Structure formats: C-alpha cells, structure tokens
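Box 3.1 — From sequence to structure: Peptidase U32
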Amino acid sequence: MDTRTFLRSQGLPAEDVGSPPASPKRFPDGAQYRVEIPSTEGPEVLDAVLAEAAERDVPVHRISQGSGAMLLTDGELARMADTAGRARVELSLFARPQAGWHTGAMVAAPAGGLVAAQARGTEQLVHVLEDVRRSAEAGVRSVLVTDLGVLSVAARMRERGELPADMRFKSSVQMALSNPASVALAERIGADTYNVPTDLSIGQLASIRAATDLPLDVYVESPDDLGGFVRHYEIAEIVRVAAPVYVKFGLRNAPDIYPSGSHLTSTAIALGRERVRRARIGLDMLHRYMPQATTSELPTRDLAVPHGEPVTSETAGELR
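Predicted structure (token representation):
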C-alpha cells in the first residue's frame, strides 16, 4: 500500500486539493462564518472594540486576547468577563506563561523561536493550568492554548470536573500544526477550535477541513510577526472551503504590544478600533463576492460567553 492510499484508508485526504469543493460543514446554528477580533488587551480595549463594532455594524462573535489572564488584575479580569457576558460575545483569554517569557536561553538562540510557545517543565505546566483555572473562576469559558501537553491535561481536567464542563480550548496559531493529521490529533485530545498558521493556501485549508469538524480560525490579516499577510480578497473562498470558520482580523503594520498593560492602553485601543474597521472592509468584500454566505446572528447559543453559573457535564451539551 503506498502512502497516499494509506492516508485515504485513515480517513485523511491524500493530496492538497487543487480546486477545492465547498465545505458542507457548519456551525451548530447552520452558519458558515463568524468574526473574531484578536489582541483585545484589557477592559478599556474591549469597551472600544465593542463600541466600534456597534458603530460600523460589524457582528463580533469572539474577542480574543494575547497577554494572558496572568497580566490582568482580578478586577480587570472580572470586568472583561462581565462586559463580554453582557454583550453575549465569546471572550477567549490566552493561557500563559510559556517559554518565550521565561528564563530559558534557547528561545533567544537563532533557531530557538520554535520553543517559545511551549510550557517548560512541570512547574510551567502547572502555571499555565493555573492561569486556565483563574480564567474559569472569573467566569471566562474560553482559553487559548499553545502546547499539546497543556491541551491534553486541561481536557482531562474538564472531563473530571476540575474545570467547567463548558470550558472551550482554542488552539493558538502558535501551536503551528499545519496538516490534516496533526489538526485531527489536536481535535482528538481536546481542542474545540483550531487557529491555523497564517500562510496556508486555499487547498491546504480545504485538506484540513476534510479531516476535522473543528471550527477553523483563519487570519485574513495577520500581524507582522506572523507574516503580515492581507488576504481580504480571499475571504469569500476561505469561507466557502473552510466553513465553519472564524474570520480573524489581525493588523499589519502595527506594533507588537505583548505583553500589554496600562502603559500601552491608548495604543491598544487604537489598534482594536482599526481591527474592527478592517473587519468592516473584509465583510464588505465577502458580501460582494459571496452574498449568500451565512453568519451567526447574535446572540448565538453555542458561543463560549462568560458567565458565573456552574455548568455540569449534562447541561454543557445543551450549550455546545
């Protein structure tokens, strides 16, 4: 049996698709796409993003953040959870720390960047999982995870009641899995949504879609340190072949503000507002080239909206 035949026998595509078919898969409400605004670093930025979205009529389904719950005060964490909960949008906070912010020297070596997103040793594994716990205790129900071991243990904690049954694990772009088999692996060990690398072709996205039912989070504009790609004219095709997809609007030609804080609040607010403006541009293009594309009407029941009520394994299924 040759390798391509073996891949087919495992339910995996045997090649990247040259002219990809439309994805028949959808979000639970039947929608093809949703909108994600990343790098929303703190409660003031969240307020600004939601205000800009209302002004520009941009439906924002998910707000994500990169500095981690670890760099939010208890009050800031509670305020973000409350604001997102009232707005009925998903709030996804980064689970930190990782090697890139730690004392190890390899990350600073010429080829060391590949370890930056990993949890180093048992102590850092514990610290990341504690960041997940702290987010959960504040009512947050979605966290970004970069490390497969963290994902695996966190999923087992969810299964055994150590974390809320409705906690969602969003695999970060920094996890960097880039083919159908590896993304399917992330799904098997507990991922609920997967942020693909920023430079995948339409055919590569289609091959991953064929192997997984996870929503795919796709940067249609990526930060400079993730490639700086601006793919607005491809949004319609991305939605067509990769649905269900979170269309994610990063921002090129913008400063790296991680880790963020009060010294960068005004910059983070300006960047957040511009991401929403970019989203308006991208959605206008999507409507122009794929007017039949369907999105989720807000509020949407299956979003991981922050809340303070305990959720059991029985009731979690009703929310997914």
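Summary of the box: The radius of gyration is 19 Å.
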